[in-house]
Design brief:
Helices cover 48% and strands 0% of the residues. It is mainly α and 129 residues long. The longest helix is centred in the N-terminal third of the chain and has 13 residues. The two termini are 30 Å apart. This is Ankyrin repeat protein. It comes from Paecilomyces lecythidis.
Length: 129
């Protein structure tokens, strides 16, 4: 049974969703996302370098949404950069790559140690299974 909002409620825009708590400042995540969308790998690297050396909070795991964006854009250089900086490989990234037919993303994942036979969970087969 689907539960729908009353018909007189306006739709909620993504910008109004509650903020997921992160250790990395939201402004930094926005800058990194914008550089990914523009395809500016140099600025992307500069932002990551400045954050990893600063005293502000920084956690590479906060960049999962940037990884999803890079997969959707089929931009292997951003995927490689995130993995090389320590973003852990998650089977959900491979699942997203399969959804968008991202063969270059899958290739990068394999080159960086992704186990193609890793199950999604106890009840779900591997991504390509």
């Amino acid at each position: 049974m689907d539960i729908l909002p009353p018909p007189d409620y306006p739709p909620v825009q993504p910008s109004r969703y509650p903020q997921i708590p992160t250790r990395t400042p939201p402004s930094t995540l926005e800058k990194v996302h914008a550089s990914c969308v523009r395809g500016d790998i140099q600025q992307f690297r500069e932002i990551l370098d400045s954050q990893s050396s600063s005293s502000e909070g920084f956690n590479i795991c906060d960049f999962y949404a940037i990884m999803i964006e890079a997969i959707k854009r089929a931009d292997a250089q951003f995927i490689k950069e995130l993995l090389h900086r320590g973003l852990p490989m998650d089977p959900l990234y491979a699942l997203e790559a399969v959804k968008v037919k991202g063969k270059y993303a899958l290739k990068v994942f394999l080159q960086n140690g992704w186990d193609i036979n890793q199950t999604m969970s106890e009840l779900k087969p591997p991504v390509l299974g």
